[in-house]
Write a structure and sequence with these properties.
The complex is a heterodimer of chains A (about 170) and B (about 725).
Chain A (H helix, E strand, L loop, with lengths): L1 H14 L27 E3 L5 H4 E5 L7 E12 L7 E8 L1 H7 L2 E7 L2 E8 L3 E8 L10 E8 L3 E2 L6 E2 L2 E8 L1
Antiparallel strand pairs in A: 1-11, 2-3, 3-8, 3-11, 4-7, 4-11, 5-6, 5-8, 9-10
Chain B lengths: L1 H28 L5 H25 L5 H18 L14 H23 L5 H17 L16 H39 L3 H13 L1 H7 L5 H21 L5 H14 L6 H15 L5 H26 L18 H13 L8 H8 L24 H14 L15 H11 L4 H14 L2 H7 L12 H4 L5 H5 L3 H12 L5 E4 L11 E4 L4 H11 L10 E19 L7 E4 L1 E6 L2 E2 L7 E5 L17 E6 L5 E19 L8 E6 L5 E5 L3 E4 L6 H11 L2 E6 L6 H6 L6 E7 L2 E6 L1
Parallel strand pairs in B: 1-2, 1-13
Antiparallel strand pairs in B: 3-9, 3-10, 3-12, 4-8, 5-6, 5-9, 7-9, 10-11, 13-15, 14-15
Helix pairs in contact in B: 1-2, 1-3, 1-6, 2-6, 2-10, 4-6, 4-7, 5-6, 6-7, 6-9, 7-16, 7-17, 9-10, 9-11, 10-11, 10-12, 11-12, 15-16
Classes of the chains: A mainly beta (about 170), B alpha+beta (about 725).
Chain lengths: ~170, ~725
Amino acid sequence: MIRLVCVFSLLYLAACDRLPESYPPPEQQPAVGDFDAPSEAMMVSMDSADSDQLIIKDIYPGGMPWRWTSQEPTIRVPLLSTENLKFSVDFTLWDETFKVTGPVEISFLVNNKLLDKVRYDTSGSKHFEKPIPPDWLTGNSEAALALSIDRVFVAYRDGSKFGVVLTRLGLKP
Amino acid sequence: MTRLLSVLFGALFTVATAWSLGTLLFRKVAPALYTWEERLLAFVAGSACLSEIMFALSAARQIHRGLLLALGLATIACALFFGTLRSSRKAFEPLTSLWRWVFLVAFGAFTWYAFFNALAPEHSSDGMAYHLGNVLIYEQAHGFPLITTNLYASLSQGIELLYLFAFEFGRHSAAALVHYSFLIALVFLVLSYGRRIGRPAVGVAGAIFTYTCPVVLRDGTTAYVDVALAAVLFAVFYLLQVWDESRDPRLLVPIGILAGFGYAAKYTGFLAVPYAAGFVAWKLWRARKPAIRPVLVIALLATAMIVPWMVKNWIEVANPVSPLANRIFPNPYVHISFEEDWRHFFSTYDLASRWKIPLEVTIRGGRLNGFLGPLFLLAPVALLALRLREGRQLLFAGLLFACTYFANIGARFLIPTVPFVSLALALAVADLPWLLLVLVAASAISCWPDIYHRYATYGAWGLDGVPVKAALRLQSEGEYLSQDVDYKIVRMMDRVVPPGQRIFSSSQGGQSYLPRELLIGYQSAATEVTEDILWTPVVGSYQPTRSLKFDFSPREIRKLRVVQQGREPWVQWSIAELRVIDGASELPRDRAWRLTAHPNPWEVQLAFDNSPVTRWRSWQPASPGMYVEVDFGGLQRVSSVVVESSSEDVNGKIALRGIGTDGQWITVSEHPVQSALPVPGNLRMAASAVLKTRGIRYVLIKPGNPGADDFFRYPAAWGMTLAGQVGEARLYQIR
């Protein structure tokens, strides 16, 4: 009996194996730059199906390629990188409301930081684009982008506010 | 109807097989028992034997329905052949009319609740997650497959192996009914004990106190294991008391088997072994009789029940008592930090003070997952039973089995002490029969589910109703189970995910209804790393935002070590990338290099894989002497070393050491230059790519999971598409 126990104990010992504690370098992962999404991935078009879940506030619902905004339209976008990014927006100042408000001044904000402030003296289609300092974005996984409009059109009937007609807003490499 | 019959057959066949095995065992070894004692103890001891047989079959990957059917039929036939199913023992004196009716009314009323709950489709959280989740895996693999990504598969599972036997025939409900049969056995054992000591009223009261206890009744009607453990421990106590009267050495055989089965049922049951061995040794020493041989018999038989589980763990996860004691048995499968966090949580349940435990555990039940019932506020009265020998025996055993309670203060962990306290409490007031009667009535009324829902915390773990239609399968299982969101989620995943694909989730639920591999974040070292990778893109403090550069005059170096010099009791050390530089360019990582780390050498490659979403972590609090090492395999010219890490202070408290041409360790630099490291590119997509290399194509995100909103808003940025949705829970497929 004792012999059998000894034999089985030795067999058990033979079955044991130490786990390795040193390793060669592993297969190298592709550079993160290789995962860069298309250049439009951080732009939000108002006609896209995903736009609703990216709107934080002050953008009216709509089914058109554009949407009316209120006073401080704000969206969030995923940060797919933090370097060499530009704030980019396409919008329109509508003739009819412009006649009421007159020239407007629009502040462009990134994570509540003022990137720039521009005065628009004419109505019509506008485009704004400006680089963002990288340290404004580092450590974040998304960014909040906003337009703050100083004068808006107020509807006589219900008091609704109308700022600009927004087409696209987001970040561009 | 067929479904109901298969459930009943699965449960009854398992119980009959276990009972038959037990009677065959008791035929030779237990002469001093009454009829009912023999029946009940034979079932419990036979369950231990059946569980051991199931272990052997599982280890040999021979779990097949036909084989189990043959095994069960052969066992029952054997018992019939030898006539062991018909007891020839003497019967107890009949109960008085009053106490017989008290027992029948209370037992019958609560059985109405309990039986139909046990028979209804199983949907308890842990039962349908891991107790039966592992059973499903074993059933599919015909035994134990190698599982290193689920710590619950490393716990002892003696009861689950009985569930596996029943599961083969009747699936989930059959397993729950097997557990319920342990509850019935426990209640009748408590009753029998009172009759054995000549106090049948105490037996009746103790049995009703135990049976009506809300957490016992709830637990015992699901596929949990706590009530089965309580039955095993009480059986050990019972047999020791019988042995103490008869001193028949043959009784030591079932005592040893059951003591070891306590550990096999649940780790906390290990106390049965020192209890049984100590009891026998103490009694024999006081009688001036030799104790070594009887104690050895108990110890050897208990060891035979325990060692298979330890050996299984030793082979599979390099730790015989996994997932515990990982500091003593360091291994790649369970992180030390996880074990310590786990212990901390279970010892506090985030309660502000331990003084809140008595009320939580007896009346409220919301924070500690169940409650014992208000009667147990009178537990101190049980101390009056100390004046009697039986009272001292009961209280000692109850106290001993409760001594692991503060490691996990959940109410379930008091279940093993409930029968002892119940009997001791009844014994304490046994001289006042009217008071005993009042206590029985008070217990039955206060623990009636419709009553306790009025005073317990809303949602406290208990029985909610009598699901007669679901139990009798007049309502479909799917319809009944669909009340549970976890069930709906796993059904959705079953529809959407092709067989063979792995799913990752941060939280468990319902796996026993999902024939797919579901990896849960916290359940192993590998899945914790996966979770770390998945969260890095959305948790800024995980990202490698800091570069620490050691610059020095170029030199020939054989080995390099980045050494931790700080100590932070709550913060881990981590390195995202370690880069070695000669002149202006980084040295390519040569396959001849050897990398290691202390602690956690098994994940060191994560600091050398060029991915910003993976990192080596100490997975225990940072302390001086920890290191990450590169052995170049020969002399290598080096002029600087860059460590990329997250922003925790402790990651900056590092020094660089090396072995040069003279073969001695020297400090190369203690002052790295820090600079901010911009996070480049799309971390989300990088994380998804790493998950793919780990064989994960699906990720289940539930509300409250870190980054849940981020997945919802930006699935395209993760390289994922929404594959299915139940409520706010979403399943994403990695493209």
